[in-house]
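Section 5.1 Outputs to date
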Amino acid sequence: MLNYLNNKFLDCKQKTKIELYLLPLLIFYFVFYSFQSTKEDIPQIQTKIDINSYTNKEFKDSFLELFSTIEEFASKNKITIMNLTNNKKVITLKAKTQLVNMEKLIKKIENLNNFTTIKLLTLTKEDLQNYKVEMQIDLSKFYIKKIEEEVDIPFVEQNEEVTDIQENKEFKINGIILNYAFINDTWLTVNDLIDDYKLIIIEKDFVVLKNKNKEIKLELIDENSIKNFN
């Protein structure tokens, strides 16, 4: 078969031989040119990240403005600032607030800018509702953060008087008959409400009231009152 093809080629005209020689070269050139054109059409994506542009960044803003922002936030949220100082880009913050405001204060500090990070946090209970907090805020390094948009949530102060009334509420049980209890001159059964308490248990000589903060157990002083109760 090869000899046959070779003889055919030798018998061809000179023009045909030249065309057969040039055909592979033309095919190669066409493929190469098409590949180069396609490559040029593809946009070059830069994937190189200049890490030094982040690691070398320094906090150069005004500490006075930063302190003013913290103090303004504290004033809006009933947080008492007792000490606020800076030493070599480490801020020491001492404050007093209710526990409900502690999370808001921490989020505010972390969300101030791309440098603030809390490196030390100490929490001490001062009284029934207030806590003392001491934190160190480091601004020596740059962090890539997604700064959240601040939402102004109105402050709701806890009412100490209401809390005291709830804790000192008096309930008096006068009798228990089957699944009913006579409490504060009212017949109640399981899951009934009295003020902000729910009756959750009825036994032969005691009941249990519960709200979201505490449970109260009411016991009959004299078990015979069950029989003699009218």
